[in-house]
C-alpha cells in the first residue's frame, strides 16, 4: 500500500493527496462548503444476553482483555489523552501487542505526549504501522523525518469525533483509562489517584468502537457516579495497579506567563476585546492553556470586575484561574473539555456550574450545531500566520511537526478569533509571506495581537470601525510582517522534500494541507 | 592553532544571544562552524555576516565557532568583534548601520518618570524594552555587568545604540565608575546616546572629567549634538555635594539618588518606608530644584509587589521627585500612573488653566478663579499638570473641546 496517492490542488491551492493510507480523501473545498451525505457509522449490534447477568465484566488483566477483544494484525486501537504526559496505558497496550506478535496496528489517540516516545520502537519493529493523532516531540521528529511506515493524519478534537462518526476511522478496540470505574464499566475522572476531571475525549470511542475496554486503578462498587462513560458501551473492565502518573497529569503548561512581553500582549488583547465591545454582560470566551492565553483570562477578569459584569459561560480547558472566576461569580458556567489542574478537578466534582463537555457537544462537524460557534471570543496560539491570516499550529518554521491541532481548528468558528503572538521568537518572525503548513484558513482568523502592533483581518470591517481612534497600535498585517523582517532579516525557506509525511484534516474531514518530509 | 578567545553567552536559558569562539591560524583559510537554534532559516545569513566581520579585520585564516540562540545581527557582530579584538590589536570598529529611529535627540526637560535598566551584556532584554514605553532605557555597563564581561558589553551596547529600536525612549547609558567609565565613552558618545548616567558621583570634578572626554570625542568625530548627563548620588559625601554636582555643567539635566549604595555607606539597611534615606532624598530634590534640573529617585527592587511600588512612587512624588528607575518592565505603568497627577489635581489645574484662557481672551492682566487671584507660577504649574495628565492618558488630548 502506498502511503499516499493522487495529489490534487485544494481550494487554498495546496497540493494534497486524495488517497491516504489506502483511504479516499476529499480535498478541502472552503469553509462550510463540504456537506457529506449518508448515515452515521455504527459498530455491530450488541446484546445484553451476551454479557454477564450480574454486570461484572472484570477480566484479570489488560492482556486478557485485548485477547478477548480479538486483537489482531491491522486493527485500529484508540486511547484518550486526559492523562496528558502521565499516560501509562498506550505504551502498555503496544507492549502487549508486541508480545503477542501482532503487527501493523494503527494507533488512534486523541493526542500524544512526550511520554509516548517509547512507541517509536513499536513503529520501528512493525507492531504499529502508523498513528493518526497529534504528533509532538520525538514522535513529531520521527514522522517529520519520514520514518513512519504509514502517513500521519492530524485531526482536530472535533475532526476526530467527525471521523469516528462518519466511519472514516473505524475503531476496533478502544482502551479507556479511567481514574474511577465500577465492574460494569461506568467510569469518571473526578476521583481516584489519576483524577483528571472528565473523560470527554473518550466519549466517541466508547460509543463507536467495536470493543471497549475500561482500565482503572480505582475500582468502586456499582454504581460509579457520575458515569461520564456509560458501562452499557463497555465490553471488559480491567483493574490495574496504576493507570496514570498523577504528577504528570496536571500539566505544567498552565502557568501564567512571567514574561513581561507576553503579559503586554495579553493586556493588549484584553483591551482590544473591551474596545471592540466584546466584553459585556452575558458574554462568553475561551482562552487556551498557554501562558499568554491564561494571562489574557486574568485581564478579562479585571475588566469584568471594573465593569461589574459577568460572563454567561467560559469554555475550558479549566484550571485554577477559571475556577477562581467561577467561584468569584465572574461567570455562571465553565463548559469544560479538559481539566488542567487539581483545582479544575475539584471544581468539576463539587460545582454544578462546572460542566463536563465533550468534542461532540463542543466541536463536532456532524452535530446539529456546536458550542464553539457561539463563543464571543476565543484566544488561541499559532506558530506562524501569513499575510492572508492563514495560520499554522502543527509545524515549526523549520518544517518539523511540533503540535497537535487540539481544539484549535474548531475554535476558529467562534464569533471573534484572536491570536496573541510575539512578532518573532528566537529571531524567527511569526508573520510570513506564506506559512509552512495551513491549519486554519485566514477567513476565520480575525485579529493578530503582537507586542508591536495589532492587525485586524480586512474582512472584519466592524472591528476596524470600532477600533478607529483607539490608543492601541492598529496596523496592517503587511506592516507587522515588514517590521519583523526589518528586525530579524528575512528567513530562508525550510529545507523540505517533496515527499509527504502527514496530512492536516479540516474540521469537515477534508484535507486542508499536507506536511512534507524534512531533509536531514 | 594559537590562543582561543570567547565572547557571549550560552546555556539552556540563553536566548537572542550567541557564544562565539575564535582561534587564529597561519594557513588553511577560514573554518566557520555554526550551530543555530534557528536551524536552516538563518544559518546562511549568520555565515555571511561572520565572513564580513572577519574580512573587515583582514582575518583569512581562523577557526570560528558560533553557538547561536537566535541572536540578531547586531549581537552576532558584537560578539564576533569582541573575540577578534581579544586576539588582534585593531582600533577599527565594525559598525552596523545606524537606524533612522535612533538619530533622534531629546529635550533637556523632557519627562523622565521612568527609566528602565537593561543589563549591558544581555541582548534579549534590549529587544522589546521599547514596547513597554518607558521614558528612557538605560543600557547598563556598570553594576549589571560582571568585570570580566565589561569589554563584551561595550561592543553590544554600542551596536544596540545603532540598531535597536527603542520606540521613542530616551537612550541612556550608565557608564562605569571613573576612571573605568572613561573608556566606555568611546563606545557610546559617537553613537547617538542621549544621556549618560555617571554613577557614584561625589564631586563636580567628576562631571567635568566626563564632559572633557565627551567633548574630545565629539570633536574627533565631528559631532555637534548635546549629550545630557544624569549624575547618580550614591554616598554620604555625594549627598553633601549634591548642589555642586547638580550645577557642575550646563548639560547636567537631572541628578538621581542611588539608595542601595547610599544606605550601605551609611551603615544601615534599606527599608520599604525609606526613613533612613529621607534626608538624602530630600537633599537631592532640593539640590536639583536649586539648580533647576530634575530630581530622580532610586529604583524599587521588589518587582513582584506592585502595591508597595505604588506607595513608594506616591512618597517619591510627595518628596518632590520627577521620576524613578525601574528594573522590570511591569513597574513602568505603575510609575507613570502614580507620578501622574491624580483626579483632584487635574480638576484644579483644568479650572486654573481655563480661567487663564478666559482672562487672556478678555485681555485681562490678572487671572482670577472665583474670588482668588492666580499668580503666574500657579498657572505655569497647572499647565504642567495638564501636560503630564495628557501624556499619561489621564486627560484627553482635546480636553478643552470635550
Secondary structure: elements and pairs:
The complex is a heterodimer of chains A (520) and B (402).
Chain A lengths: L3 E6 L5 E6 L2 E2 L33 E2 L2 H7 L7 E4 L9 H11 L5 E5 L9 H6 L3 E4 L5 H8 L7 E3 L2 H9 L7 E6 L1 E2 L5 E2 L14 H6 L2 E6 L19 E4 L6 H4 L10 H16 L7 E5 L3 H17 L3 E5 L4 H9 L2 E6 L5 H9 L3 E3 L2 H4 L14 E3 L4 E3 L4 E2 L15 H4 L4 E5 L3 E2 L2 E2 L1 E2 L14 E4 L2 E4 L4 H6 L7 E2 L1 H12 L7 E10 L5 E8 L2
Parallel strand pairs in A: 4-13, 5-6, 5-9, 6-7, 8-28, 9-12, 12-13, 14-15, 14-18, 15-16, 16-17, 18-21, 19-24, 21-25, 26-27
Antiparallel strand pairs in A: 1-2, 2-3, 10-11, 19-20, 22-23, 25-26, 28-29
Helix pairs in contact in A: 8-9
Chain B lengths: L3 E5 L9 E7 L5 E7 L6 H14 L5 E7 L4 H15 L26 E6 L3 H5 L8 E5 L9 H14 L6 E5 L5 H9 L6 E4 L5 H17 L7 E6 L2 H5 L1 H5 L7 E4 L1 H8 L11 H13 L3 E4 L8 H14 L3 E4 L3 H10 L3 H19 L5 E3 L2 E3 L1 H16 L11
Parallel strand pairs in B: 3-4, 5-6, 5-12, 6-7, 7-8, 8-9, 9-10, 10-11, 11-12
Antiparallel strand pairs in B: 1-2, 2-4, 13-14
Helix pairs in contact in B: 1-2, 2-4, 11-12, 13-14
Amino acid at each position: 500500500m502506498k502511503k499516499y496517492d493522487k495529489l490534487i490542488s485544494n481550494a487554498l491551492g495546496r497540493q494534497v493527496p486524495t488517497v491516504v493510507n489506502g483511504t479516499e480523501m476529499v480535498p478541502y473545498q472552503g469553509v462550510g462548503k463540504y456537506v457529506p451525505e449518508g448515515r452515521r457509522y455504527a459498530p455491530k449490534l450488541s446484546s445484553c444476553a451476551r454479557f454477564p447477568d450480574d454486570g461484572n465484566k472484570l477480566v484479570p488483566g489488560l492482556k486478557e482483555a485485548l485477547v478477548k477483544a480479538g486483537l489482531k494484525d491491522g486493527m485500529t486501537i484508540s486511547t484518550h489523552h486526559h492523562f496528558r504526559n502521565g499516560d501509562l496505558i498506550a505504551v502498555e497496550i503496544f507492549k502487549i501487542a508486541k508480545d503477542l506478535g501482532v503487527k501493523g496496528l494503527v494507533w488512534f489517540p486523541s493526542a500524544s505526549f512526550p511520554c509516548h516516545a517509547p512507541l517509536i520502537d513499536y513503529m520501528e519493529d512493525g507492531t504499529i504501522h502508523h498513528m493518526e493523532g497529534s504528533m509532538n516531540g520525538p514522535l513529531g521528529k520521527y514522522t517529520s523525518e519520514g520514518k513512519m511506515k504509514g502517513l500521519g493524519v492530524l485531526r482536530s478534537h472535533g475532526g476526530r469525533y467527525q471521523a469516528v462518526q462518519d466511519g472514516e476511522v473505524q475503531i476496533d478496540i478502544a482502551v479507556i483509562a479511567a481514574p474511577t470505574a465500577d465492574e460494569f464499566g461506568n467510569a469518571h475522572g473526578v476521583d481516584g489517584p489519576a483524577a483528571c476531571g472528565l473523560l470527554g475525549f473518550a466519549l466517541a470511542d466508547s460509543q463507536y468502537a467495536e470493543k471497549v475496554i475500561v482500565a482503572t486503578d480505582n475500582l468502586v462498587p456499582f454504581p460509579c457516579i457520575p458515569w461520564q462513560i456509560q458501562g452499557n458501551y463497555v465490553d471488559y473492565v480491567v483493574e490495574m495497579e496504576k493507570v496514570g502518573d498523577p504528577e504528570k497529569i496536571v500539566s505544567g503548561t498552565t502557568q501564567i506567563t512571567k514574561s513581561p512581553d507576553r503579559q503586554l500582549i495579553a493586556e493588549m488583547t484584553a483591551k482590544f476585546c473591551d474596545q471592540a465591545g466584546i466584553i459585556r454582560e452575558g458574554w462568553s470566551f475561551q482562552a487556551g492553556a498557554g501562558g499568554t492565553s491564561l494571562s489574557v483570562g486574568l485581564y478579562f477578569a479585571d475588566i469584568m470586575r471594573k465593569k461589574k459584569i459577568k460572563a454567561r459561560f467560559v469554555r475550558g480547558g479549566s484550571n485554577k484561574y477559571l475556577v477562581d472566576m467561577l467561584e468569584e461569580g465572574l461567570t455562571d458556567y465553565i463548559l469544560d473539555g479538559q481539566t488542567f489542574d487539581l483545582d479544575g478537578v475539584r471544581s468539576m466534582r463539587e460545582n454544578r456550574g462546572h460542566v463536563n463537555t465533550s468534542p461532540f457537544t463542543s466541536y463536532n462537524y456532524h452535530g446539529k450545531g456546536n458550542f464553539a460557534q457561539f463563543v464571543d471570543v476565543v484566544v488561541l496560539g499559532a506558530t506562524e500566520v501569513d499575510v492572508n491570516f492563514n495560520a499554522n499550529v502543527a509545524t515549526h518554521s523549520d518544517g518539523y511537526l511540533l503540535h497537535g491541532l487540539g481544539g484549535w481548528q474548531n475554535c476558529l468558528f467562534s464569533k471573534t478569533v484572536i491570536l496573541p503572538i510575539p512578532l518573532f521568537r528566537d529571531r524567527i518572525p511569526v508573520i510570513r509571506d506564506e506559512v509552512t503548513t495551513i491549519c486554519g484558513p485566514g477567513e476565520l482568523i480575525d485579529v493578530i495581537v503582537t507586542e508591536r502592533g495589532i492587525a485586524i483581518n480586512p474582512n472584519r470591517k466592524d472591528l476596524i470601525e470600532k477600533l478607529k481612534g483607539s490608543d492601541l497600535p492598529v496596523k496592517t498585517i503587511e506592516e507587522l510582517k515588514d517590521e519583523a523582517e526589518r528586525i530579524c532579516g528575512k528567513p530562508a525557506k525550510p529545507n523540505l522534500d517533496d515527499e509527504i509525511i502527514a496530512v492536516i484534516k479540516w474540521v469537515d474531514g477534508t484535507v486542508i494541507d499536507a506536511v512534507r518530509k524534512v531533509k536531514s | 592553532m594559537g590562543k582561543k578567545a570567547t565572547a557571549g553567552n550560552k546555556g539552556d536559558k540563553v536566548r537572542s544571544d550567541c557564544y562565539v569562539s575564535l582561534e587564529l591560524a597561519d594557513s588553511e583559510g577560514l573554518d566557520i562552524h555554526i550551530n543555530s537554534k534557528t536551524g536552516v532559516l538563518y544559518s546562511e545569513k549568520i555565515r555571511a555576516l561572520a565572513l564580513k566581520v572577519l574580512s573587515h579585520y583582514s582575518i583569512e585564516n581562523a577557526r570560528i565557532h558560533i553557538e547561536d540562540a537566535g541572536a540578531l545581527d547586531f549581537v552576532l557582530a558584537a560578539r564576533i568583534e569582541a573575540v577578534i579584538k581579544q586576539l588582534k590589536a585593531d582600533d577599527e570598529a565594525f559598525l552596523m548601520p545606524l537606524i533612522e529611529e535612533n538619530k533622534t535627540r531629546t529635550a533637556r526637560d523632557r519627562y523622565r518618570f521612568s527609566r528602565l535598566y537593561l543589563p549591558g551584556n544581555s541582548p534579549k532584554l534590549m529587544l522589546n524594552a521599547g514596547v513597554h514605553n518607558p521614558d528612557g532605557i538605560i543600557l547598563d555597563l556598570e553594576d549589571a555587568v560582571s568585570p570580566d564581561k565589561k569589554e563584551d558589553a561595550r561592543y553590544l551596547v554600542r551596536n544596540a545604540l545603532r540598531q535597536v529600536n527603542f520606540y521613542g525612549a530616551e537612550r541612556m547609558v550608565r557608564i562605569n565608575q571613573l576612571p573605568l567609565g572613561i573608556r566606555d565613552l568611546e563606545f557610546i558618545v559617537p553613537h547617538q546616546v542621549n544621556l549618560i548616567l555617571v554613577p557614584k558621583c561625589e564631586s563636580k570634578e567628576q562631571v567635568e572629567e566626563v564632559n572633557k572626554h565627551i567633548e574630545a570625542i565629539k570633536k574627533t568625530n565631528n559631532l555637534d549634538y548635546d549629550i545630557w548627563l544624569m549624575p547618580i548620588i550614591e554616598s554620604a559625601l555625594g549627598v553633601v555635594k549634591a548642589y555642586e554636582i547638580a550645577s557642575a555643567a550646563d548639560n547636567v539635566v537631572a541628578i538621581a539618588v542611588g539608595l542601595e549604595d547610599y544606605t550601605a555607606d551609611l551603615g544601615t539597611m534599606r527599608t520599604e518606608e525609606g526613613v533612613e534615606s529621607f534626608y538624602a532624598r530630600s537633599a537631592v530634590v532640593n539640590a536639583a530644584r536649586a539648580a533647576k534640573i530634575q530630581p530622580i529617585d532610586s529604583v524599587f527592587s521588589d518587582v513582584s509587589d506592585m502595591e508597595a511600588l505604588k506607595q513608594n512612587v506616591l512618597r517619591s512624588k510627595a518628596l518632590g521627585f520627577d521620576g524613578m528607575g525601574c528594573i522590570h518592565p511591569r513597574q513602568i505603568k505603575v510609575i507613570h500612573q502614580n507620578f501622574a497627577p491624580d483626579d483632584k489635581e487635574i480638576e484644579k489645574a483644568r479650572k486654573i488653566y481655563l480661567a487663564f484662557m478666559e482672562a487672556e481672551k478678555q485681555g485681562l492682566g490678572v487671572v482670577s478663579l472665583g474670588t482668588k487671584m492666580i499668580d503666574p507660577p500657579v498657572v505655569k504649574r497647572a499647565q504642567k499638570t495638564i501636560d503630564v495628565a495628557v501624556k499619561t492618558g489621564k486627560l484627553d488630548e482635546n480636553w478643552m473641546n470635550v
